[in-house]
Every structure is written in structure tokens, then in C-alpha cells.
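User: I'm putting together a teaching handout on how sequence relates to shape, and I'd like one worked example. Could you take Pyridine nucleotide-disulfide oxidoreductase from Mycolicibacterium sarraceniae, show the sequence you're using, and then write out its predicted structure as C-alpha cells right after it?

Assistant: Happy to. First the sequence, then the C-alpha cells directly below it.
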Amino acid sequence: MNPGARGAYSFDEILTKFRAEGRIAIVGASVAGLRAAEALREKGFNGSLTIVGDEPHEPYDRPPLSKQVLKGWVRADHTKLPRLRPVNADWKLGVAAVGLDRINHIVRLANGENVEYDRLLIATGTRARPWPNPAEGSLEGVFTVRTVEDAAGLAAALKARPKRVLIVGSGFVGSEIASVCRDLDLPVTVAERGRGPLMGALGGVISEIAAGMMRDAGVDLRTGVAVQNLSGDDTGHVRQAHLSDGTVIDVDVVVASLGSIRNVEWLEGAGLAAGQWGVGCDAGCRAFDINGVVTDHIFVAGDVARAPHVLYDYEFMCQEHWDNAVFGAQVAANNMINLEVGRVPHLPLPSFWSGQFGVNIKSVGVCSYGDQIVFTQGSPSQRRFAAAYGRRGRIVGAVTFNHGKWLPYYASLIEKSAPFPPPPPGYDRPANAEVMPARFPDPREPAGNPDVVLTGHDPTSRGAEFRPRA
């Protein structure tokens, strides 16, 4: 059925019929996909539900893969997400979506099968960015960490006690893996082409503290250098890494922690606002087409969604965090089976946590949106503190190191657009509470996104299209 076609039915009758007989397809057997399916059933959708996933596994929990699994505390295949309620879905696992026909409401699968839908949820998430040289990336001992198989392979390699592990990149995943290596008493080198670890997420002031944590734990941290190439032995196992400063490191295991790629290639030609930035959508999770016009039947949730945020000047943001995936999925589910007056916005306050080198790091808001920082509590030298980020006189984010009990306080300030610097708490004030530049990397570097151009001369009939890459 087509729930958008009114015909002789009232809107309430259309909605009732859709909830009973409609077809919803979810592409992405992820935490967002699973929680959306559960929410649909919870909210009374009794129609056909199909869930497509390119991995052969049912949805599983990814955060433990770079922590507990690598330490050997949890087996990689024991991270399956709990089911909060039955979803009664047709699961199509181990088969990727390869195309979308918006006119006929069809998702095309790699096995030649077509999945028809009345409503579609895109929850395809991200994948790990691979090593840029495929031949070097295929050497034994070279890993990324994103899937169950990735984590199981790396865990086995670490258990074999390599002589040295090289981690390329020092974001949160790379830093967590470096911490695990030191917990396992393994020699580890971290190569970071930027100025320090966690720089992109938390800025240079906090990066210096994170770098001190690494070095004090025995990590060989090298900043401002790139890994130019990897070389292996006659058996095809990685043995050396050649750095841009001319040094060569003997290694047995290499972990490429180079960030993520949003899974949008299957949407090419579908006419959606989809690219390496994600899939553009409104605050109600409805996808935009290439012209920026909201669609009626396609919704987006999770890491792949890019939506405007009211607290950050309506800037479009992707939020690759657990809470965003779960709550965004629930909002998308609600809005898929409701008419306009019953729809709700997804207005998350981003938050994340990381455990590394004996420190629990928690953050709320969008720290990288700020350009100033101030320590508000605790002692940075003891790595036990809270710090707030500001922009144009208001607080936009906060981070805590071993001080997470205060995070709700800062979250409440951010939600109210409270002034920056924020009002000081009642106790545990730091010795230095001076506002200083947060020192984030320069965002003006070319991104390599495909160009969008306007076609036509009449403003009433003008349209957008992607310019083909050279």
C-alpha cells in the first residue's frame, strides 16, 4: 500500500491501514536498525518488517571490540545486542544493499533480490577506513577494528605476544587499543600525523594531557609523522613500517585507526543528499533529496545520519555515538508510522565515554564546536578534572577526566545555552581557571567532497546534481 495516497480514505484511516498492512524496510542490521525495529513494534506497527544487513551476524555491540574483547575478557562473538522485545522481522543478513529505486520503492540487494517498501529507514552506519595501499593492507598482521572478525583477529594476534605493535592514528579507538597493549605489557608505537592524540575531538589543550598519559604508560608516541609504507617478509607478514621522518620501525602487528567511512555508496544515483558526509536529514529523521527537499518515505538514523542541531546554529552534524543511534532510531520509528502532528524531533545532546590508561574520559555536547576552553574543576596535572568549551560567550561542550559525576551539571548548562565561562561549581576549583584557546585543528583543509552544481536557468525549475569526479 502507499500510505501517502489518500483516495477515499481519511488520514486516520490511512494511518490505521498502514500500521496494519504497510511494509517497512530497514537497511542496516545495526544498533540503530534493531532499536528502530523494536520501537516500531512497541508503537503498534503490525505490518511487514524487513531488516537488511551486509554482515552475517545479528546486531552486536561495537564499543567492547576495542576494549574488553582485545583484553580477552569477552569473546568477540559474545557481543550480541540484547533484544528488548520481539521484532518479528524478515532478516536478510550477509547480503548488502546495492541500489535504491525511489520511484518504485525498491531496495536492490547484491543477490539480485528486491525488497519493496512503503517506508524505508537507512541505518547503514560506517566502516573502518582501510589502509590506503591494498597490497600492504593485505599483509598478515595488518588490522582495522570495526567488525567482530576484526576484533577476534586482532585479539588473537595480541595474545601471541608480538614484539611490537604499531597503531597508526590516535583518535579514541587508536588510543584505546594502545592502552590495551600496555595493559597486556606489549611494546606499542603510536604514529600520529597531527600534533597529538584526541586533537580533533577535544583540541590541543586536552591533547597535551592525553599525550602525557600515553607516554607515562610507556607508549612510544610519535607525532607529526606519517607512515609512508609497510613492508613484509617472504611469508607475507608485516615486518617494518617506514615513516615520513626517515625512520624505520620493526613491527609484527599494525592497527590502522584512520577514521571511518559512511556507508552510502549503495545510494549512488538515488537522488538523495548522500555523500561522504553522510545522508542529510531533518530533525525528524526524514531524508533530504539532492535538492534539499525533504522526502516523505525515507528516514535516516545512526552514524550515517547528518542533521541540523538547534544548539549549534542549526549546523548539520553526524554524531557517531551510541545514544544518538538509539534515540535517533526511536524517533525515526515514531515518525515513520505517524502523520505530521504525531511526529517528534530528534534533539540529542551528544555524549560519549572512553576508558584508556586508567582514566575514564566522558564528554557531553560538541566540544569541537567551541574555540575556547577553561578548566572548571579538579586538577589537570593529576588527570582528574572537568573542562568546559565555549563559543561566542556560551558553553557548547564539556569533558571530564575521572570526574564524570559532574557531567549532568554541564549537560544542563549546555541545554540552556548558559554563559561561558560557566558559573563556578561550589567546590574543587582548579588552581588555574583562565579561559584559553582550545586549539582545534584548522578545519579549512580541502575535504574532497563531490561538488554539487545547479542546473537550469529558470529559478522555478532549477535543480541540483552531483558533478562527476575527475
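A couple of points you could highlight for students: The mean pLDDT is 93. The radius of gyration is 24 Å.
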